[in-house]
Amino acid sequence: MKIVVVSDTHMPRMSKRLPTVLRHELADAEAIIHAGDWTRLAVYEALAAYAPVYGVIGNNDGPEIAAKFGMRKLLTLGGCRIGIVHGHGAALRTKTEAHAVAAFKEERPDAIVYGHSHIPVLRRDAKSGMLIFNPGSPTDKRRQAQFSFGIMEAVDGKLSARHVFYPDKG
């Protein structure tokens, strides 16, 4: 199962439309995860034209998005349990990952997807083997060298992930 993973789209302020490279990957996606900071429900509608969308709210999302999505979500895709949270609420952005992991300490999912920092992260926890994944941002790279989003593959309970990096959001 191909899962396209995005976060921190901040649309339309940071981009009027989804980047071309992202739209190309969405074309054969079986599911889409958005880890918050959509800023407009139109982003959900654009993504939903491709595949089922699962998401959470971020700190820049208003009441319209809050009414549709919760603060955290635990779902099963391709036999893998995936926790989704934006990650805001940590006192420092350097603590965003720890805050995201703590949100699911009781459930112990196979993976945690988070956003907020706009910093791409892909690692496995040495003790639990849990995949920890921040896709970065497809439209607002901040201090990162490139824009990014993620691709997860979930097959028979096995989960892998990778980033897609690109220089411009056109």
Automatic annotation (TrEMBL):
InterPro entries xref list: Calcineurin-like_PHP_lpxH, Metallo-depent_PP-like, Phosphodiesterase_MJ0936/Vps29
Keywords assigned by UniProt, alphabetized: Metal-binding
Domain of life of the native organism: Bacteria
Listed EC numbers: 3.1.4.-
Cofactor(s) in the UniProt record: a divalent metal cation
Coiled coil stretches, renumbered: none
Annotated TM spans: none
GO molecular function, one term: hydrolase activity
Record-annotated Calcineurin-like phosphoesterase domain positions: 1-155
Protein family per UniProt: Belongs to the metallophosphoesterase superfamily. YfcE family.
PANTHER family, per the entry: VACUOLAR SORTING PROTEIN VPS29
Protein name: Phosphoesterase
